[in-house]
Design brief:
The protein has 5 helices and no strands. It has helices at residues 2-25, 29-42, 45-71, 74-82, 84-96.
Length: 101
Amino acid sequence: MEQHQLTGALCTQLVGSVALLAHERGESLPKTLRYVVVEEFQGNWIGTLKLGVPAFLYTLQNNLLFVALSNLPAAMYQVQQRSTPACLQLALHALDGTHYV
């Protein structure tokens, strides 16, 4: 049940973001969606990768932590959960060479 609520919240955020961008640009929703896909994703694919790869890895890690919660003792799970920010920071550093400390 909780997974469906998260998916619904993400879809709501995506639709809301595109609607706000459409309002800001003074265009229709389909035209704005086309702009986002063509200009932002395809036209700036390096920037998309810089954001997409860490986001994918973070999502994968969170899903694996959920599986670990059901299979590991509580102490070991806490250690795994505490490593999430460090792993994200390492991934961001590897992609663009900046420090986020």
